[in-house]
Design goal:
By secondary structure, the chain is α/β, with parallel strands linked by helices. It has one domain (22-253): ATP synthase, F1 complex, gamma subunit (Pyruvate Kinase, Chain: A, domain 1, 3-Layer(aba) Sandwich), CATH 3.40.1380. It has helices at residues 4-59, 91-106, 108-113, 123-130, 149-165, 204-208, 218-295, and strands at 76-81, 116-121, 135-140, 170-180, 183-192.
């Protein structure tokens, strides 16, 4: 059995850990409120943008390169959005499992031939895939230090350029969608080529009664609108991932605080038993000594 000093030191260490996990939970809760506000404000705009793009695609007579599915898929790009920091439960590991499972099931031959590339947003994704046999085209560690829209547009601008030039024939986006504080949806979405059937459209019967006049023509508007739509989809995924990360960290720190409390209670019980045993031993030794003196 550990001595009393060792048990006291462990109890003090657990108390200090509890203070840290409790503080991290409060910080995550504050960040979560802000992240929720941002994603709630962005979701309607992103949804309406998809609806407008869907309507424009139906009205367009020209083939846009961002909408064209290539005859053959030779090169694939995965954009994986993780966090910079850990201590958020299975937030990152579960996402990486989904990404690796998708690659193994549908893109294993591309990986083996070197035709699969990754863009890693967040330090955790960079560390995870950088240590494994993956071709990391670009990495963005420290991305979450300052979340700004122009960072997302720069990434997507580069992706669109590579897609138009034929460097990549398909682009996938892997991220955590915020569902609640204790749950996240891990999504794998096709970003490019844009799939018209995934765009939100209004009711066909209502659309038949409406006539739109486009100035300039629908094709030119769509040419400007599609990159904006892609920028917004990546930005929305980034905000979703940020909110999901804070929720996961809040839950993880709450569980850690509760576990520390249980450990502290167990150690206090062990300490009391050890102390009681020591006192009982001392009393027994005193009584035995006293009896020995009386018999002498």
């Amino acid at each position: 059995m550990a001595n009393l000093r060792d048990i006291r030191n462990r109890i003090e260490s657990i108390k200090n850990t509890q203070q840290i996990t409790r503080a991290m939970k409060m910080v995550a809760a504050a960040k979560l409120r802000k992240a929720q506000d941002r994603i709630i404000e962005t979701r309607p705009y992103a949804s309406k943008m998809k609806e407008v793009v869907g309507r424009m695609v139906k009205s367009s007579n020209d083939d846009n390169v961002l909408l064209d599915t290539p005859e053959s898929t030779d090169n694939v790009l995965f954009i994986i959005i993780s966090s910079d920091r850990g201590l958020c439960g299975g937030f990152n590991n579960n996402l990486f499992k989904v990404a690796e499972s998708e690659i193994k099931e549908n893109y294993s031959e591309y990986k083996e031939t070197g035709n699969l590339s990754l863009i890693c947003i967040g330090r955790q994704a960079t560390k995870h895939f950088g240590k494994r046999d993956y071709e990391v085209k670009a990495e963005y560690p420290g991305f979450w230090d300052n979340i700004e829209f122009h960072k997302a547009t720069e990434i997507m601008k580069s992706v669109i350029k590579d897609f138009k030039s034929g460097t990549f024939d398909e682009v996938k986006l892997v991220y955590n969608e915020f569902k609640s504080v204790i749950a996240q949806n891990r999504l794998v979405e096709t970003v490019l080529p844009i799939q018209p059937d995934t765009l939100t459209e209004t009711d066909d019967e209502i659309e038949e009664d409406r006539e739109y006049i486009f100035e300039p023509d629908a094709d030119k508007i769509l040419e400007k609108l599609l990159p904006l739509h892609l920028n917004l989809q990546l930005w929305k995924a980034i905000l979703e991932s940020n909110a999901a990360e804070q929720g996961a960290r809040m839950t993880a720190m709450d569980n850690a605080t509760e576990n520390a409390q249980e450990m502290k209670e167990d150690l206090e019980l062990e300490y009391n038993r050890a102390r009681q045993s020591a006192i009982t031993t001392e009393i027994s030794e005193i009584i035995s000594g006293a009896q020995a003196l009386e018999e002498a």
